[in-house]
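Onboarding guide, step 5: your first structure request.
Type a short instruction followed by the sequence, for example:

Predict the 3D structure of this protein.
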Amino acid sequence: MNGSTWTSWPSREALTRAPQGRTRAAIARFVWAAVLAGLLWNAFADGRFALWQVAIGLAAAVSCGFAGRTYFRTTREHSLWPSLGMLVVLMAVAFVAREAGAEALGVTLWCGCAVVALERLPLSAAVPLTAAALIAYAVVKGDGWQTTAITTGSLCLGGYVLRLDAEARGSPRRLLAQERAAREAEAGAAALAERSRIAREIHDVLAHSLSAQLVHLEAARLLIEREPSTEFRDQVLERVVVARSMAREGLAETRQALSALRGEMTPVEEFLRQLVADEPAAVTVSGERRPLSAEASQAVRRVAQEALTNARKHAPGAAVCVRLAYEADAVALEVRDSGGHRPAGELAVSGSGYGLLGMRERAELLGGTLEAGPEEEGFVVNLRVPA
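The system replies with structure tokens like these:
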């Protein structure tokens, strides 16, 4: 065998048991409980063990259960020293059990340690431990060198066969996981390519159109400002300025939508701070910040825009507080203003043409919720979507 064979671990798939259904798990727990109860019954019924021996047996059973469970977990995580420590604990429990008169338990533990070491550890660590466990078994049993040799050889062969069998059963699961990851990556690449194509189409049509409108509106504004000031001229100039502002906002939102399609969106908290830069508003962020899905990020951005637009329309000059919270499995947005009460029906329409009614539908499509309504002072909008 080469060096890598001696130092390599069995794959994690090989060290992970196939998931069991609830029924099988319950049956397994019942069987183990019945075995333990039978052993205790025999111990008390026959009077072969003193009370202190029974106590030692119970302590040994608890120690073996904890050490065995920890050993299986640490080997699955490829943690060498904790795994070796758990096997040493099991072998020590075997020695204590043998000294207490439970020779069968000690022998069983030594043989079990020899087998699971070969099955789940790198061979460079498994072989010395297996040798130590089998030497202890040979010293205790003393059935003659032929019987001992046959038994120890069978245990070594059984442990290595279990190792090979686990690798054989783990290979299909590993290949399936790799294939699933490759398919997901391929689907993600295809989706990104399609979103990029849509983004190019939008840029070539809508963004260019809005940019041209801005140029013409700015030229119209300069021409109108050269005319003598009259009431009609001032009204036309005001309309042109408003149209230019709306075209600029539409172009900015179009660029944000294009960035979202290309997966190049700025962080949500940065977007919120830019959104309230010219407003009497404050932004607070809580929780561990993490990247959000495109859908959740867009929902937060649109609801924040809508809520601020409504605050400007219905409570001009009111202070606004924007809170963004990263929760364990969701993201929450709260926009609260200090203006007067107003009916929720007024929020169905905004300057952007997409009211909170549409935002509520967007949140529900994502499996989230949106609530809006007056409170003691001002108005509050609460959004919560999975993320």
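Each response can be followed by summary notes, for example: The two ends are 49 Å apart (CA to CA).
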